[in-house]
Write a structure and sequence with these properties.
single chain; alpha/beta; 5-stranded mixed β-sheet
């Protein structure tokens, strides 16, 4: 039975959800309900839960802030957000906090039940994985009870700064390990296929503990041979390299050499690809946590830079010029407005290049990819009002394990959406063109008739109207309106004895002088001469 906490500032919503859902039948126990994120935080401190259902907009602490708190303090807790459609732009920011599901209000009993069934399946899988991994740890890591495990735990505390440096160094010296130097650094070694980027099979999970053990042994051997420092493994099967040197300039070159050798030997012995994040070098061992933190950040660059990398944070680029990618996204929007899909696709590739060159991490990249998806959706929505963005498209972006895969999802979505829009466009634009011409025929005598009037009548944007109208008629709105006005003026000049200024008013020109100019420009003669020749 999994524990659930419900968070919503509307008491009627909380009561409806609390009373209508068959919690036990679905495998859950509703242990509490709170009216805002702040109250939820206090509740969780006393009683952690497996799943939090939360609204996005609440006073004091909203759903996004609550998601961030859970991500940082209770990472194992699943999160489901429900919000109004207008909140979606806001809600998507919670992607980086590993939100499991989004549900649009109003929520039906069946919709919420389906989400809970899916959530239970994920929780069951997670619990089963943890049980299997625990078993694997007992089989492959019995050394956690011996000296090797004790050493690893002390080194981990030293690296993360969770224990005083002096205490850690003393404990290590008692075991016979002395760490001294004028320069220190940390590198994190991760097997790509077993990383968080993949949903690996059960068979691969069984192999992961053993393969991690092999990587650790290879790392220990290389580090010892090079006299570079020590290698150890944490409880998550990730290997770390703790470098130390008496020569400040030596450590950067040595760490690169060691990591390359480890990478080659792992591939040679196991056929596996590994990525290595090398943290910044520090002069005092008390600053080792800074090196550890930057090493972990370096591993996050695997999403944009690709697998099998060795990334040294000492060589990290300066902060990205965000205005460049914003300009590219704006260009993408303009190409879509012109229905120039070819240039829109080319711009997506330029955006991909920028994201890769500026070494952004996954959460930052996902926000940009979501922005592009929303631009595509809004453009298509202008053509087909009934078009609805599939939730599956949103989830696809968050599930990709590389920038390349993310760009592929975006490009496929563009092609699919524009293909749909094109089919709708072919049938609707013909009718809209007819309606537009009928509207001009009925209202041409209105001197204040504008492009905005006809677009409001049709319910389309001015850019979209101008595009399809010119394609269908070969004329702009102004050209079509002028043509209809002058043709009606010709008829009146031939068939009636109205004065020029009267005809000008009847065909929508408030200024007779401007009417004369427009008429002569179109026909080559003045209205007076035209009437004299034709009557």
């Amino acid at each position: 039975m999994y524990k659930i906490l419900l968070v919503d500032d509307e008491i009627l919503v909380r009561e409806a959800i609390r009373d209508k859902i068959a919690w036990r039948e679905l495998g859950f126990s509703l242990v509490g309900d709170c009216e805002n994120g702040k109250e939820a935080v206090e509740f969780l401190k006393k009683e952690p839960v497996d799943l939090v259902l939360t609204d996005i907009c609440m006073p004091y602490m909203d759903g996004l802030e609550l998601s961030k708190y859970l991500y940082e303090n209770y990472p194992e807790t699943a999160i489901v957000i429900f919000s109004g459609y207008s909140d979606f732009e806001y809600a998507k920011k919670a992607i980086q906090y590993k939100v499991s599901e989004y549900i649009l209000k109003p929520i039906t009993k069946s919709e919420l039940s389906e989400v809970l069934v899916k959530a239970k399946e994920q929780l069951d899988e997670k619990r089963e994985e943890e049980q299997k991994l625990d078993k694997l740890h007992k089989i492959y890591h019995n050394y956690t009870k011996n000296e090797a495990a004790i050493i690893a735990k002390i080194l981990e505390k030293l690296m993360k700064g969770t224990q005083g440096v002096e205490a850690s160094l003393t404990e290590l010296e008692e075991i016979g390990i002395v760490i001294r130097g004028k320069s220190f650094g940390v590198a994190a070694v991760d097997i790509d296929v077993y990383s968080d980027a993949y949903a690996i099979s059960e068979e691969l999970k069984k192999e992961s503990a053993l393969m991690a053990f092999v990587v650790e042994n290879i790392s220990e051997e290389v580090m010892e041979n090079e006299g570079a420092g020590v290698a150890f493994q944490d409880t998550n099967n990730r290997t770390y390299l703790l470098f130390s040197s008496n020569l400040k300039g030596e450590l950067s070159l040595k760490s690169q050499k060691v990591c390359k050798e480890i990478q080659e030997k792992v591939r040679e012995n196991t056929g596996l690809s590994i990525s290595v994040g090398i943290g910044i070098k520090v002069e005092h061992i008390t600053d080792l946590p800074k090196s550890y933190e930057t090493a972990m950040n370096a591993l996050k660059l695997r999403f944009s830079q690709g697998e099998g990398m060795i990334y040294d944070m000492e060589k990290a680029k300066s902060e990205a010029n965000v205005s460049q990618v914003e300009n590219l996204i704006e260009n993408f929007k303009l190409f879509l407005a012109k229905n120039d899909v070819e240039n829109a696709q080319a711009t997506i590739l330029k955006i991909e290049t920028w994201l890769k060159e500026n070494q952004l991490i996954k959460s930052e990249i996902i926000v940009y990819l979501h922005q592009i998806v929303q631009i595509i959706y809004k453009h298509a929505k202008e053509i087909d009002k009934d078009l609805i963005l599939s939730e599956e498209e949103t989830i696809k972006i968050t599930k990709v394990n590389s920038l390349n895969k993310g760009i592929e999802v975006v490009r496929n979505y563009l092609e699919k959406t524009m293909e749909h829009a094109s089919k709708i466009n072919k049938t609707s634009t013909e009718r809209q063109t007819e309606l537009a011409l009928e509207y001009i025929e009925k209202n041409f005598d209105n001197p204040d008739l504008t492009l905005n009037d006809i677009c409001n009548y049709l319910g389309v944007s001015t850019s979209y109207f101008s595009s399809f109208f010119k394609e269908a008629t070969g004329k702009t709105f102004t050209e079509a309106l002028t043509n209809i006005r002058l043709e009606r003026a010709k008829k009146l000049l031939i068939e009636t004895s109205f004065k020029n200024y009267e005809i000008a008013q009847k065909v929508g020109y408030s200024d007779p002088h401007y009417f004369n100019i427009a008429f002569k420009k179109a026909t080559g003669i003045t209205p007076k001469k035209f009437a004299k020749e034709r009557r």
